[in-house]
Design brief:
Strand content: 15-25%
CATH class of the largest domain: Alpha Beta
Shape: globular
Number of helices: 10
Distance between the termini: 46 Å
Radius of gyration: 20 Å
Structural class: alpha/beta
Oligomer: single chain
Largest sheet: 5 strands, mixed
Helix content: 40-55%
CATH architecture of the largest domain: Alpha-Beta Complex
Number of strands: 10
Number of domains: 2
Length: about 270
Amino acid sequence: MASPYILSPITDDEFDKLLLDHHQKLLVVIFTTAWCKNCKRLAGAIEQMAEDLSKISTFVHIDVDELLQTVKRYNVTSTPTFALFRGPVFQTSITAALLPKQPTPEQSDDQLLGWVSNMTKGFAAQWNASYSKITDHLAFSPTPTEKQIAEGLTKVGFKTVIGMESKQNPGEYLAKEGDLWKEHGITFISYPIKSADEITLQDFDEVLQLIENQAGPILLHSEIGQVAAIFVFAAVAKQNARKASEIPTWASELGFDFEGLGRLTQKMTAWIEK
């Protein structure tokens, strides 16, 4: 991929050095081959995404036929595969085959690239300790670190925090986090969402009830912020009688992209419209 925004290491050692040298930014690594038709179809969109996200990430192109040790180390078995790294630390990866099947290749491409974009923005936001305020009463964020809580978020003015569990942030962390919030007089509630796939319409009912019964402003957080965002937008839509079809445009105006969220968005829509 010939782009000033995409690095292309030609040896395994060069890639390892690149991981160490770029530890201040998220790395989005694309594993492709010269003969991969899907890779060729996505090339232009990937180059544009690399430019669009250049302030928060660095894109890296890996030819799986050249960097064999790297491919083996990260168990890359299909192309294109997208992987996210924080310096040398692998974070997550995705291929089109792991996402819900779409009717056309173009829709599959949009879903895959939407996932990559959302994950990149989500991880970057987590490291920058940012949060997104949707109304005066509700905000969402990625799961904060202890340092982010102590040095920033406790000073924002939140009265209640709802932490949503995931496999990456188990209950032990949330229990410890609760103590940190309580030290600052902020109510902390742990709501056990195990994964996006396990969310039910009842979860939306229960979270809305929590929101309506707690003092605001309220912060909802989840691993990279996407699950929390879905619940916040759903709650605000329900409270203000907004149609589900309006949410993607409304969210986009606030800087949040629903592309790539698939079934989670479908569940939100079903709950709002029931």
